[in-house]
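Structural prep section.
Before we set up the soaks we want a predicted structure of the protein with 5-hydroxymethyl-3,4-dihydroxypiperidine in place, mainly to decide which crystallisation condition to try first. Input record follows.
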Amino acid sequence: MSGFTLSGCELGVATAATQIEGGAADTTWHRWAAADRITDHSTPARAADHWNRVEQDVALLGELGVRHYRMGLEWARIEPLRGQFDPAGFAHYRDEFTRLRDAGIRPLVTLHHFSEPGWFADAGGWLAPDAVPTFLRFAEAVVSEFADLVSDWITINEPTVYASHAYLWGLWPPGETSAYRRALAVTQALVDAHLAAYPMIHRLCPDAKVGVAHHLRVFGPRSPRNPLHRGASALSRYLFQDALVEVMATGRSRPPLRRPKAVVPGRYYDFHGINYYTRSTVAGLADGTAANVPVNDLGWEVYPRGIVELARWMHARWPGPIWITENGTADAADAFRSRYVYEHLAQIAVSDLPIERYYHWCFTDNFEWAEGEGARFGLVDLDFGTQVRTVRESGRFYADIIANHGVTDAAYDRWVAGQEYPTNGEDG
Ligand code: IFM
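Run finished without errors. Recording the tokens verbatim:
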């Protein structure tokens, strides 16, 4: 297969507020950077300075022909002090949504994407007894304010990634390690937040489409014949995603997660958001990567079939539209991103699943959390020092796919044919 048509799947790009906006705000991540916890000592105060460049970035989205844009709202900019909402924060995002709408670009808005106001963290973060109502008050204020401009909402981004990085691996604020009970309690709070936000958003915005953006991986045993590896792989998958997806989609308990008392089991999604990047090869409790496989700059295996394997798993259990809310790769040299895009979209093109949208991560290079500025996920190259944006060849390829509703043979020859992935060698 070289060229293909994508029918029924619309293409967009994704971002998150803390990763692109820049500027001063009292968020958990600005504090984390101030404590020098970012690998390359960078800070979200720089990022892509999007806060001051909305006009320029919306124009760039338009140049690329993008019609769907996933973005986040920085909670600390809207509610800088507990219970005190800032009209300037609302006005800024209203201006951004209006510009997007005027340019014919439909926003998909994430309410929680790894970052919270400092005051929320000071009160105990998601472990505080009133964390969920506090988040819901913010969510209600936002949805009421923007219901005329936004109808596509993501409540929570990647709950298990958030809980594990922050409470098990010590990599993200508050930096706890092996705090299993607290990781579980935080995950439960995020579940509760979604299950309460879902009906609330529909009450405020009857035409809304609401879902969670789940980080899903393919899990496989390092040695398929080793029963310990098989068991560890199944357990990892269950704990990382199976139980979580079930509870958030249906409101039913699935140990170790439970249904909140006030929740009636039912359907708590209008679409399934899947953030898909890689496959994990499991030999014990820690995550791993197979040997001699294609990998990106961060060592993540490139495994295109996984995007549809996971969508199929999800749709079979909880039927409904699938939105690939993130898919992309760290490739500073732009040496294999076009092939990555091509191979993942090719899987979607031949599948019989209702994959309605695909948002490429990321629009521009950005602040990649604990990795800082080094991991380059952008279709658009960003010079962080000068803030000059330069569309990469992969960005031109993506624009061509949007324009042609698929990959033409000419585009394949121009952007994909000559690209190969690096491999990771024997050690995995
Ligand atoms: O940058 C992140 C994003 O915030 C959540 N999903 C994975 C991306 C790449 O690591």
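Observations: The mean pLDDT is 97.
Flagged for discussion at group meeting.
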